[in-house]
Amino acid sequence: MRSVKTLATAAEAGRHQREWFADLRRRVADGEPFALLNADVPHEIFRTMDIPYAVSQWWASLVAAKQRSGHYLDLVRQRGYPDYSEQYNSVTLGSAFDPEPEAGPWGGLPRPDIVVGDATGDVTRKVFDIWGHEPGVTFYPLESAAENEVPANWWELMPHRWEQAVGPARLDLLTAELENLVRFLETTTGRRFRESRFREVMALVNEQEEWNRKTRDLIARTRPAPLGVVDSIPSVMLPQWHRGTEWARDIARRFYEEVRDRVDAGHAACPGERARLMWIGRGLWYDMGFYQRFQDEYGAVFVWSMYLAIAADGYVRHGDDPMRALAARFAAFTDQLYTPPWSSEWYVKEARLHGIDGVVHLVSDDPRGSYFTARALEAAGFPVIEIHADNVDARTFDDEVVRRIGQWLENVVLA
Amino acid sequence: MPTALAALEEAYARRGARTAASTRLSVSMDPSVSMGPAVSTSPAGDRTPVVGYVGADVPVELLTAAGVHAVRLTGDPDSGSVLGDRYLGRGVDPMARSVLTRLLAGSFGDLDRIVVSHDCEASLRLFYALRELRRVEPGTALPEAYLVDILHLPHRTTARYNRRRIGEFAARLEAWTGRPLDLAGAVAAHDERRRLLTAVAELRRAVPARLTGRQFLAVANAALPVDEHIALLERLLAEAGRLGEHPGRRVFLSGSDHDTPHVYETVESEGYVIVGEDHSFGDLFLGEPVGAGGLDALAEHYHHSGPTAHRATVGERAAHAARAVRHCRAELFVGYSRIGDEAPAWDFPAQRAALDIPAVLLERQEYGRADLAALRKEHPCAV
């Protein structure tokens, strides 16, 4: 079942993405440097320096949506590497091994000059480091640090009191790493880093995410839901990869306005809405139709994914020192989504805000603290069903999942 | 009097076992109990705090300097891991799941604190689970957990961060115990243990080997206070002439940590002898002494420890494998990657390319198990 997008903003974002990528390929062909960045590293530095970049996870999602992840994982396996490990990054690594890269989606991913990733987990650094051994590619790693004690209410602290939420040790570390990254990029690309431009980029990001916050709040309080995640994910995530541009800020505003118009007109994503569902986990990129599969039969609509919600709560950082504020955006980014108590308390807050009736929780083999997420939601009264799969590796998805969720909706959520 | 090797193997067998003492104050004065992992007392009857620790990057010198009894927590492949599976999820290295299960079962006796390092993702996830369980399920009665966040990128930014974290840990220990640390004495003792273990490792590297891999694992990880461990290691070296010879095919074992002897026993039961390894329970962590220099030297030492599968690049691991294989004159390289511990499988292609001996990968292995079918097929070894 194919997903059906109905939002003009989503269509515009998709169109822009294709045009941007075609332009990116032209710029790279003309000799400009090209960076491949992991999702959770500070893109804003590359934006400030006008260094073209693409996001590893975005590319993996595109590959999965084109049902090509198996091809790239085969290429990884042919090099002797495991094809069952950290597929979200290794699918993109597979493109580096492709003897026919131009046969990839949208003409293929250009070969990067620079890859940047953080040392999350045991494998991410290895994946990017292996990439760094390809001819002409340099890997710049960032640390992934952890903290002993953290205040649980990060979403309240982050916009202004991020020093308190993240802690000075991690902020000092990442700020220093980023200062070094700027000099590395200045040296290797010849591009300049202007502080005034950096401040503009940081302000644009905050504006963009503030619009996302208004959109999130509007969807949360509207019954029936004016849109589902099939529309909200591209409307927030494609601009997210362009954050720091005026286009991204403006389309975030238009996204809000379009949702507001829908609310004013009483438009429902799922007429006869009976259940509002929350999707916890990464997007199921190879089967986005999954999210609309329960609307007709059960009146169940996925109103929540992390993508709009983390845009709303996870990015805004105000402060006079832009480099430290940027470090504060990423020094604990994954903790917001995956580390209790931050993750578990936040999901409960969001479930309450959105009036959620049931939670579908995608659990992959990545160690992500899923027990505490489910526990917190169930303790707060939200039914949770867990499904086990990898979000870019379609080989791991069992169609039985759809039947299980149907039964759960009938017997638990709608009972 | 038993040989030193027998005493060390006996101490190793007792590690991780529950002590006979059921309460903190009804402690046996039997010296053998103090070898166990949980409750220990001084001759005057004062109870020594017991700290369980997890991971290769916990600076144990600081625990010794604080005067606590430090016990490295280990799992057990034979005792199930239902609770660990529940709290950590089945994507996490089963070694960590087993440790958590055993903690919840009270298998380590009464621990005053747990110190966890960020040596791998499983250890970090274990720390988060311990912290969260204390918060939301206080009935589990877990001791307070503390994270020592030592990182490993080879840069000055990371060195400064590590120094800060080491300093914070030292201050926390002083706050726990209420007394200053004897760091110089502790570092000297641990460096002496490293020196002796390095000498013992040469016995295993001899041709034929004078210790099996299983024996070396026991010698290196015997659950003993540092001073007792040193005394037995000195005796072992003095008794080296009485050790047997082990002429089996010489294997270098690479990859996942082995906190139990199961895999060593399985491999060596086929007629191989494991003469070297690159995980944190083996000779990877003998390394250089910390030396003088206090907390600065300690931070630098742990920053540069390894290279472990979880924190080093494939290039660093391959270069280390080539050096180590030559040093221990291995004839076969066995990469071992446990389910939920996938980093070693990423290392293997570069390791194989760097070696001039046959190499085989055992991947997606069950905890404590080694499926030797591939080994038997490609590299048969007569028993």
UniProtKB/TrEMBL annotation, chain A:
Gene3D superfamilies: 3.40.50.11900. InterPro entries: FldB/FldC_alpha/beta (IPR010327). GO terms for molecular function: hydro-lyase activity. Belongs to the FldB/FldC dehydratase alpha/beta subunit family. This is 2-hydroxyacyl-CoA dehydratase. It comes from Microbispora bryophytorum. The lineage of its organism: Bacteria, Bacillati, Actinomycetota, Actinomycetes, Streptosporangiales.
Automatic annotation (TrEMBL), chain B:
One of its GO terms (molecular function) is hydro-lyase activity. InterPro entries: FldB/FldC_alpha/beta. It comes from the Bacteria. Pfam families: HGD-D. Belongs to the FldB/FldC dehydratase alpha/beta subunit family. This is 2-hydroxyacyl-CoA dehydratase. It comes from Microbispora bryophytorum.
